[in-house]
């Protein structure tokens, strides 16, 4: 488990919207798309992230427990081809692109709780567990 991820995992609210008796949001999970890691961030990646940040901050101001996630989808043929064209490995490419995204979020003062990367060991473990659950239930045939 990467440092900080275990602590963040234990603080996460349930993956759903909850309202109190008066209809006020009490907990909320907010996420952006997991951006494809074959190119630098642009207005199309900044816009949904800014909107998600605004939603998360507003819910927090109203007293809700909020978990805001953004991150990178770091697998695919385009990533391999882009890395090959740059004469680097796919992992080196996605590390560089993830750094660009994280740098932009810092400049924009985006206050996410978790930056997901599909190449992280935590993500791999979660995917394996979900796959195993589906297999155990007979959902994969």
Provide an overview of this structure.
By secondary structure, the protein is α/β, with parallel strands linked by helices. The model has no long low-confidence stretch (mean pLDDT 88). The protein starts with a helix and ends in a 5-residue tail after the last helix. The protein has a 4-stranded mixed beta sheet with strand order 1-2-3-4, sandwiched between helices. Helix 3 crosses helix 4 (90-107). It has helices at 5-11, 43-61, 77-85, 90-107, 121-136, and strands spanning 18-19, 25-36, 65-73, 114-117. The protein is flat and about 55 Å long.
SSE topology:
Elements: H1 5-11, E1 18-19, E2 25-36, H2 43-61, E3 65-73, H3 77-85, H4 90-107, E4 114-117, H5 121-136
Parallel strand pairs: 2-3, 3-4
Antiparallel strand pairs: 1-2
SS class: alpha/beta
N-to-C CA distance: 31 Å
Strand content: 15-25%
Spatially, the strands of the biggest sheet line up as 1-2-3-4
Biggest sheet architecture: 4 strands, mixed
Average pLDDT works out at 88
- Uncertain residue segments: none
Cα shape? flat
Question: C-alpha Rg, in Å?
Answer: 17 Å
Helix share of residues? Answer: 40-55%
